[in-house]
Design goal:
With 272 residues, this protein is α/β, with parallel strands linked by helices. It folds into two domains: 94 residues, no CATH class; 133 residues, 3-Layer(aba) Sandwich (Cytidine Deaminase, domain 2), CATH 3.40.140.10. Helices cover 27% and strands 31% of the residues. The strands form four sheets. The protein has a six-stranded mixed beta sheet with strand order 10-9-11-12-13-14, with helices on both faces. Strands 5-6-3-4-7 form a five-stranded mixed beta sheet, covered by helices on one side. Strand 5 and strand 6 form a beta hairpin. Helix 1 crosses helix 6 and helix 6 packs parallel to helix 7. The longest helix is centred in the middle third of the chain and has 14 residues. The radius of gyration is 19 Å and the shape is flat. About 2% of the residues have low confidence.
């Protein structure tokens, strides 16, 4: 199965020592090359990712960065084992001086390589849907299902997951990767590829903490609600508040913590 490998390991406890072959999440470099009608071929950067869904990963990354606003600005995509070449039309916003990164973007890094954080803050975002609402019971239901659908995590314990869910808590799509930002890019890219951004009527769900970059990607894609199993950062809360995103964190079976946009959460005491 793609996405994990085996490596020799030893499990040691107080009474025994056992050698065995363990499943580990794969992490490989992917070079992203952009061939633009205006700028020719340029190396956008190198990212560390779990192999699989590379086209979605690149499309989601380009969309989240504001390099493209639609898949119609993409003239072609060619995937090889260690690189993806994407051909962009003159309608894209690709600017090598702004977008090409001199360093490798690690699987743990979202904003790394940008010259200033202002580059990330100034983004075009759609108006988020004010009519969508979700209940605690639906979030709890999606949490239970999400765990069972994380195949790579089940085998390795080493992957992050990003999913889209509906208001009933049904998981519509889920992607895993060694990097949480990559998993989100794969999710967003799948909707970009099908011309379904902004995403309507769906919620983004992440298996880890709510970082600034993940909130930014959710807003850019048009998700009105983002749910995270882990904690938020201060900047993630500020960005969510600025753009009207409902940010739900510390999602558990019986409780959640809402930091922004509580109006979209239905509970036993209110429907507003």
């Amino acid at each position: 199965m793609e996405g994990f490998e085996t490596r020799p390991a030893a499990r040691i406890n107080k009474v025994s020592r056992r050698r065995y072959d363990d499943f580990v999440i794969s992490e490989e470099a992917l070079s992203i090359l952009v061939n633009s009608e205006i700028h020719g071929e340029q190396k956008l950067g190198v990212t560390m990712r779990t192999k699989g869904n590379d086209s979605n990963l690149v499309l989601g990354f380009l969309f989240s960065e504001g390099i493209i606003n639609s898949v119609d600005e993409v003239l072609g995509v060619e995937n090889e084992s260690d690189k993806t070449i994407i051909v962009l039309s003159s309608e894209s916003n690709f600017d090598p001086s702004l977008h090409c990164r001199p360093s490798i973007v690690s699987s743990a890094c979202g904003i790394c390589g940008r010259s200033t954080i202002d580059d990330a803050l100034h983004m075009h975002s759609p108006k988020l849907d004010e009519t969508i609402k979700i209940s605690l019971s639906s979030i709890s239901r999606s949490l239970e299902t999400m765990v069972s659908k994380q195949t790579l995590f089940t085998h390795t314990g080493g992957s992050h997951a990003c999913a889209s869910i509906d208001i009933n808590g049904d998981i519509k799509r889920i992607f895993e990767d060694v990097g949480r930002h990559n998993a989100m890019d794969k999710l967003v890219g799948s909707y970009v590829a099908e011309r379904q951004v902004p995403v309507n009527g769906l919620i983004s769900f992440v298996s880890g903490r709510a970082s600034f970059e993940l909130v930014q990607k959710s807003i850019r894609a048009g998700f009105s609600i983002m749910v995270a199993i882990g904690a938020p950062s201060s900047l993630a809360i500020d960005l969510a508040n600025e753009h009207g995103l409902t940010l739900v964190c510390f999602a558990k079976n019986e409780s959640i913590t809402v930091y922004t946009g509580i109006r979209r959460i239905i509970d036993h005491s209110t429907t507003s």
